[in-house]
Amino acid sequence: MSNYLKLAGFGVLTIFFMIAASYARDLAYQFHAGILMCVAGGLFLYTLRNTDEPAVVVDRSAYLDSVVRAGVIATAFWGVTGFLVGTFIAFQLAFPGLNFDWSEGLANFGRLRPLHTSAVIFAFGGNALIATSFYVVQRTSAARLWGGNLAWFVFWGYQLFIVLAATGYLLGGTQSKEYAEPEWYIDLWLTVVWLAYLAVFLGTIVRRKERHIYVANWFYLAFIVTVALLHVVNNLTIPVSIWGSKSVIVWPGVQDAMVQWWYGHNAVGFFLTAGFLGMMYYFIPKQAGRPVYSYKLSIIHFWALIFLYIWAGPHHLHYTALPDWASTLGMVFSIVLWMPSWGGMINGLMTLSGAWDKLRTDPVLRMLVISVGFYGMSTFEGPVMSIRAVNALSHYTDWTIGHVHSGALGWNGMITFGCLYFLTPVLWKRERLYSLSLVSWHFWLATIGIVLYAASMWVTGIMEGLMWREVDANGFLVWSFADTVAAKLPMYVMRGAGGVLYLFGSLVMCYNLWMTVRRAPAKEASLNVAVPAE
Length: 534
What we know:
The protein has 534 residues and is mostly helical. The chain is 72% helix and 1% strand.
């Protein structure tokens, strides 16, 4: 009976999207209606093919690891894609001729830049978070993922969101809000997928066999719940037409800016920090073979971070129409955030107490540990840059770009790489990785790439800020904007070179993971049977 209802639903959706493509008011909407029509039609045919077929028997006692394996593959794929686009646009800034005439309105810098940020944050980082959270919550709860195939809906629904968002950017479908560019109908779809994600994760915790809820799950849950709240409030819009992509935000003027950076900074705080701290609290102890240094400190870290981070957004709006009290409030909470952030960093690093010697022989652990070092550095630099006097120099300069990338590439990238190296042998039942030597190569390529990138942006950002402020004896500006752009060329080339090294390191990782699956010795025992929490 359920299959017949699905057939009716998919049939109606296929016809609706066909009509939408015909009545579309802009190219992005029309293209997306075509994609959705194909997806709905394909699901209709798939359901029809399986209607009245014998039901497939599923072992409900085993962990649902197939969706985690798919997440590992998606994470690696979208990571390479995001790094490739980022490296190309870095060279576009250094050599504007790479904005080819034929690519105007499709693949010029303005279209590719949001594609890069979304590919790295939401495609690479989001898939890493979904995959690792599904793995961790099962192992620490000794329970299979709740909801049957709902986890697969989350995975494929999220991939559809990524494709719609990415193609929308290239075709001009964007609401021009940082980290929240997708238009209204894509936002609605992501809301449905995200609520399903919350249901799977929370349902698994509810049905757990282990009484205690491990701290990593608290960080994952905070990330999922808060991102849902941020996404809904920041994307409250009224569509101009149901047949078009354009919409009008409900927040006026400065309130829109306030809500946007409440969202924007907490996207960093909960998507790129809290979720990845869930990874840290599970995978570093597992790889090191040591318990968390201080479980009490991890609880303090959690509650302090969750309470403080949500207030820090206004520091993005110093010297704007936002009232001074609001931006000062954001600045104060940003500075206070330094303490719980470093408490978490110390907890992660000190987990290696008694196992520091493993850093010499285990490049995967080395990668996980250096990510925590970058986390500590970024969470020191961020509060410093939030101070109004420092922000007067740093804002709108490449210093901000260096700060963001030292955190994204160093913290988020490195810990994700370490998790992929940990998960691949386990999920594909291999005794070990194909080559630890290649992991070391990846570690050094990525580390040198980050140093080149971040250092060049720090130098050019501070230089840029100082040149903008320099005046002569008569109070006139010494440098024109074009002078500052010309002065930055050597650092822009260095930034591009750092991106090439980081990209090449990720390709080395993909080869190593592929060869692990294909060539590494297999384990005999099944590793996906539900066992006591681990």
